[in-house]
Amino acid sequence: MCAELVHLGGFVPDDVVTVAANTGSTHFVGVEQLEAFENEYKEVPQDRRDEFLEDRRIQVRAINKHASECEAWHEDMLQARSNEREKAKLVRAESIFTRLKNLGYTSELDYFGTGPIEDAHRSNFNRAKALTDREWARVGGRFVRTMNDYRIRRLEEAVYNPRRKILVELYDTYARQPAPPGAIVDLLPDVVDVAHFAAFDAIIKLPEGTEVNAETFKPAFEQMPTLVQEWRADVDAQLAALVIPGDSSTSGVAEDDFSDGSSSLQNA
């Protein structure tokens, strides 16, 4: 009896293997099982062979049913373990974020979400082991450094930049006004430079939650004449530092040229 007939007749348990998604499945029959069946079949009297074959079909169907049930149970167990692992990872993640919130990083987690933190510390979030105080003492510092970086980003984006926008509008209005009487500098710095002046930078970086508006910047603008003079003196000093005595490229420029330039500004 050939293997194909044995398989089609369902006389011997077989294994189903999917070779490729587009080619379907292939059935394999164990050689030893096939030979054992053939030898047993030959020993059966001719008048009992039909009964023998039917009994074998019943046995094989029972075996296949049991095998399917075992496979389904195994898949369920694997899925259950996977679910348990995912739940454990979620519990661990929640523990990490709770600790970070307790350290004062709630605003950063609300602003950026938890995704970037998980990406930055993927190995810690992929573990299913419960987070202990001892482990946190070892890895917590890495999270704190990450959260401090995100705090700087959040303050720049959500707190300082809106204040800088207020300054841009106020400075635009200020720059359009005529120079005050007695002004000795007729060149104003760029608003980017103004934002770095200590008086303005201190206002921009007032603690989060402090209301900052046009009135808040008023004392700093009152210092502008002095601040601009200091800024121009610093610019002149930097330019002078670039001039190398005896350099042929500047040999045609007299020192008085720089002083004359300053005088022209003072007289403006």
Can you walk me through this structure?
With 268 residues, this protein is mostly helical. The chain is 71% helix and 5% strand. The chain contains 12 helices and 2 strands. It has a two-stranded antiparallel ribbon with strand order 1-2. The longest helix has 54 residues, at 49-102. The radius of gyration is 41 Å and the shape is rod-shaped. The chain starts with a helix and ends with a helix.
Give me a quick take on this structure.
By secondary structure, the protein is mainly α. It has helices spanning 3-9, 31-43, 49-102, 106-112, 115-120, 122-125, 133-176, 191-196, 198-204, 214-222, 224-242, 255-267; strands at residues 14-20, 24-29.
Return the string of H and E elements: HEEHHHHHHHHHHH
Largest sheet: 2 strands, antiparallel
**Would you tell me the overall average pLDDT?**
80
Low-confidence regions = 1-9, 15-21, 251-268
Q: Helicity range of the residues?
A: over 70%
Q: Report the total helices.
A: 12
Please identify the structural class as seen in this structure: mainly alpha
What fraction of the residues are assigned to beta strands by DSSP? under 5%
First-to-last CA distance = 116 Å
Count of β-strands: 2
**Main β-sheet, spatial strand arrangement:** 1-2
Radius of gyration computed on alpha carbons: 41 Å
Shape: rod-shaped
